[in-house]
Specification:
Blueprint lengths: L1 H16 L3 H18 L1 H15 L5 H26 L3 H4 L3 E4 L2 H4 L9 E5 L11 H4 L4 E6 L5 H11 L5 E4 L4 H8 L4 E6 L9 E5 L2 E5 L2 H8 L3 E11 L2 E6 L6 E2 L2 E2 L2 H18 L27
């Protein structure tokens, strides 16, 4: 079964990568519209999440329309992620606008100050990994959770690694990641907008408390890195604008801030990104699921 799944995935990847980018985007949107009808479980999750967060300011019809467009956007993003993985950075550059603090986009020193970036499931979020091609002074990396199907996992990683970004498996690569972070001039991007289950701290997000991963705050404090939030906005069909926000302070009056305080700021920046374009975020994830989380512990632990 795994071999069959691998060849099916490889065939889909090859087909999408053979298409022009706009065609891939339209195909993805069509598949997303089909998924909205066929995938009742995730459709209900998206509708429930949107109603919970926007029900006081939008009608039921509006939140359902947002859910439908969200499925189209997710399909578009996945198809475009497959296509853009095969594109050279020169071919991709006209499609992406990078906006952020000058000291990050064009760092004044070599090596630059190390950075931890809190990134989220916005738009074509696989494009975050291409930042190192824009700013080659940085050594860029991120983490991932491998799939059970090893052959399919290797296929996905082969697509991602063309970006030049290093990938560390969250469960098994703690040692290599620590070695990486002890180098000068690194940028570590961590997806930080999804439920962390019992490993998170409970903080408000879009008006409701949920489990929040403290990883970006822990890494920024431990390795003395600058901390920023990055959001990928879809500005048109197969066109994106990746924005880095303000630096989030990790120290106050010469002392480290608590992890809870840092992550509240991260969540606020994510909230602004969601409200700016609600259909652009990953609403099919059960972000507010109930889990038994102990009282927030603001000490710095090992990642």
């Amino acid at each position: 079964m795994e071999i069959l799944l691998y060849w099916l995935a490889r065939g889909v990847v090859g087909f999408i990568q053979a298409l022009p980018l706009e065609w891939a985007a339209r195909l993805g949107r069509a598949c997303g519209a089909i998924a909205y009808v066929a995938d009742g479980r995730h459709r209900r999750v998206a509708q429930r999440n949107l109603a919970m967060c926007f029900g006081k300011e939008k009608s039921e019809r509006e939140t359902k329309a947002l859910a439908k467009e969200n499925f189209r956007r997710i399909g578009e993003s996945f198809a475009c992620a497959i296509k853009t993985a095969s594109m050279t950075f020169e071919d991709l550059k006209p499609r992406i606008e990078w906006v952020g603090a000058p000291e990050v986009v064009t760092p004044p020193t070599d090596p630059p100050r190390s950075i931890v970036a809190a990134i989220g499931h916005f738009g074509n979020f696989e494009l975050y990994a291409r930042f190192g091609q824009l700013a080659p002074k940085y050594k860029c990396a991120t983490t991932y959770r491998g799939l059970r199907q090893l052959t399919v996992n290797r296929l996905l990683q082969s697509l991602r690694e063309r970006s030049g970004c290093q990938f560390f498996e969250r469960r098994f690569d703690a040692g290599p990641l620590k070695t990486f972070m002890n180098q000068p001039g690194v940028m570590l991007g961590l997806l930080s907008d999804q439920s962390a289950g019992t490993h998170g701290i409970r903080l408000p997000f879009l008006g409701h408390e949920c489990s929040t991963s403290p990883a970006v705050a822990v890494f920024a404090l431990r390795y003395n890195c600058g901390l920023y939030v990055g959001v990928c906005y879809r500005v048109a069909l197969a066109r994106w604008r990746i924005e880095g926000g303000r630096e989030i302070p990790t120290h106050e009056n010469g002392s480290p801030r608590t992890i809870e305080a840092i992550m509240r700021d991260v969540n606020r920046d994510f909230e602004a990104g969601v409200r700016r374009d609600p259909a652009n975020w990953f609403w099919v994830h059960n972000r507010w699921k109930q889990s038994k989380i102990p009282k927030s512990d603001t000490t710095v632990r090992s990642p």
